[in-house]
């Protein structure tokens, strides 16, 4: 069952587009992009989530990421 979001698709797509544009502007390769995005996630969790909830949120995020990864060959 798909989850519904409190954020509009348009808002999500706008932010995603802007983040991709920044990475492309800096010609960041995939590994650097993933490092930066991972550091951003860590920063958000550590600064905006209570210590008691951090581990659970990190696990939920990791599980959602794993579930969203397509196992088919890339390009």
Automatic annotation (TrEMBL):
SUPFAM superfamilies associated with the record: YejL-like
InterPro entries from the UniProt entry: UPF0352 (IPR009857), YejL_sf (IPR023202)
Coiled coil: none
Domain of life, source organism: Bacteria
Gene3D superfamilies documented for this protein: YejL-like
One Pfam entry name: DUF1414
Family of this protein: Belongs to the UPF0352 family.
Protein name per Swiss-Prot or TrEMBL: UPF0352 protein JJB97_02030
């Amino acid at each position: 069952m798909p989850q519904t979001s409190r954020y509009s698709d348009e808002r999500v797509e706008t932010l995603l587009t802007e983040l991709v544009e920044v990475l492309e502007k800096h010609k960041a390769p995939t590994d650097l992009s993933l490092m930066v995005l991972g550091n951003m996630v860590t920063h958000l969790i550590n600064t905006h989530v209570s210590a008691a909830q951090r581990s659970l949120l990190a696990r939920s995020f990791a599980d959602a990421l794993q579930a969203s990864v397509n196992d088919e060959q890339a390009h």
